[in-house]
Amino acid sequence: MRQATAAGVPLHPSPKARPSCGSAAARTNLIIGEWPSVPPNQLSPPSLGCWRIWAVNRRLWREMKRSSSRRTATGRPAHGPPTCHESPYNRPQLSRSSQTASHLIGLRAGSGDREGTRCMAYWWVNQGHSFRQELEAGILWAPTRTQAGRRQSHWETMTEVRPGDTVIHYASQVRALSLVTTAAIPARRPREIPGLWSGDGRLVRTVYREALQVVRLSNIPEVWRTGHSSDGPFKYDGGVKQGYLFRVDDGFFKRFIERYGDLFSDAPVVLPAEAKDGAAELLRRLLGRDILTVHGRRNRIIDVQSLHVVVVTERSPNGQRVPIAEVEAALVTLRTTGRVEIHPAEVGHRSSFIGAVLLTLPGVELVDGTPPVIAVRSLTTSDAPAERQEPITFEGDLSRPVTAAQRREQSTLRQLLFGSATVATCALCGDAYPVRFLVAAHIKMRSLCTDEERRDLVNIAMPACQFGCDALYEAGYISVGPDGRIVSSAIEENGTLAERLADLAGRPCLSFSENSRRYFEWHFSTRFRG
After folding, report:
1. Domain 122-263 of CATH type 2.60.40
2. How far is CA 518 from CA 165, 296, 483, in A?
3. pLDDT given for residue 146 in this prediction
4. Where are the domains of the chain?
């Protein structure tokens, strides 16, 4: 007697000759849910195996559907991951650890509740011997290829990481959580990372929060670590896979945070480096520039004194003094709460000017309302599903008319290259400087880029220091050769310039990659003096 499924369909074929179900693609369709055009008792052995898998999956799916109809006290299905971007502020009956950790990882920074936006993703990174170096640098870094030239899936996941995602850092134990502040950009291996891999790679900037007490793998229940996708960080027996970066499902992360969230301290509001400077230094950088208030009126700083800044407006053409302390107080509020109300009761009687100063910071935005609010912009950058991320670009007009055309994508470029880092590395000389001394330099001259090239933010720009590298590259005294190393032009005179060029020649360009190669080729063939 032949064995039958619950639906009465025989699992074993009849002894008659069985036609094949067709190609491997056709057999694959059976696994993912398409009913075979051939009766099960007439399938060839390979196709029959696929049909059996299909039958089991279908039965499991029915059971999960029945289970999901039972609601918990919170109104969410009893089984299955939480909804996209479920916030601790709209979720009832959360433990204190969940609330603390949700604040820690910056759930408030995302905008996934809006229809069509990308869900926040959660990641598990195995860092081992590189944990301390990557923590101190505030980065994740992975090569693009092995020494044999092959790509690895656990390195390719770097391209899926987006600002606002959260990372669990594992180095024999869970040692930190972090909030991602930039998407991956091409970058040579930083000097801090041990030299076990090739130089070409990808870099993500992230804000680490070390654990007050590490979490051992054995303390994480084994049932949490089993039954995951084959693309996840755990083996079938619950051990940790070898590899670098893996995505974890929402259910695992939620359980982990509910139990261990209290072991991680709260994270501050993530701001660009410029917002971390003191008010006096920020105002000096704006000296002589026209800045616009929230209502579009022009202000110009003409002097920065010890206690006051002198501002020219239409109503005060001879200048009016504003206490620097009021600007500093607004900056402190922005750093601590992530938002500032632009109203005299909140920031002083020159609130319009203070709002204009805050709006010059990359990574902030004006929130409409009465009174208007300046807030830290959401870290999420893409509306595409996580499985099909579109290239990072800039939407909208790239220039807007003011007294001169502004490069509207410039603040986005700086956010992409530097995130919240206060120190970063020049791609040309390889030296680290405070980010205020680094520019987001276009590899190909921006005025000659096509519109599509200007929007290719990941590959069109590189960090270049203001201590010679940016100027030398712009003037064509240095360029990047086909091998990704710096070449310098030959000059007749000796002296400081010749010494500097000789010192740079042969160094690897940290932003050179296959995707940026065409822009460097343009500079080498068009701008380089030779």
Report:
1. no
2. 30, 40, 12
3. 84
4. 122-263, 273-376, 408-527
